[in-house]
Amino acid sequence: MVKDILHVIRRGLTRPIVLWLLESKPRCGYELINEFKRLTGHRLQPGIIYPFLYALEREGFIICSLVERGRRRIKYYRLTDKGRDLLEKIKCFFRRPVKEVIVDLLEPSPSPQ
Fold first, then answer.
1. Cα 71–34–57 angle (5° rounding)?
2. Which pLDDT tens digit goes with each residue over 61-105?
3. What pTM was estimated for this model as a whole?
4. Using CA atoms, how far apart are residues 92 and 94, in angstroms rounded to an integer?
5. Cα separation of 45 and 18, whole Å?
6. Is pLDDT of 57 > 80?
7. Long-range contacts: 64-68, Cβ < 8 Å, 24+?
8. Per-residue model confidence as pLDDT tens digits over 4-15
């Protein structure tokens, strides 16, 4: 049970951590996977990272550049201004006192019109 809860929490933090990693410098997917493992001790699966990167690119939060390395072409992803704004909003959310977050969670959602 505890292991399952920790897995859910870690999975929920995966995306903010990926954005944070892209803040410092452009990175390829393989580098993101390795850096995530170094930071958290857990391997980020390609089936999680690549769809997320494609969605971020589609929405304009990141852009990718192709870099030739010998015969290989490697995609490097970096944040756009829109992506930096998103990351800043995420950081602000995590800076809020826990009490404020809990109050927001307990407030009833507005009913659909």
1. 70
2. 999 999 998 899 999 999 999 999 999 998 888 787 766 766 776
3. 0.75
4. 5
5. 12
6. yes
7. 65/26
8. 666 666 667 788
Secondary-structure breakdown of the chain: helix, strand, coil percentages, each rounded to the nearest 5: 65, 15, 20
End-to-end CA distance of the chain: 38
Average pLDDT of the chain to the nearest whole number: 86
CATH number among 3.30.420.150, 1.10.1740.10, 3.40.50.11540, 1.10.10.10, domain 2-106: 1.10.10.10
> In sequence order, which residues have a C-beta less than 8 Å from that of residue 27 and are 6 or more positions away?
21, 35, 76, 77, 78
Which residue type, as a one-letter code, is found at position 63? I
- For residue 54, count other CB atoms closer than 10 A to its CB: 13
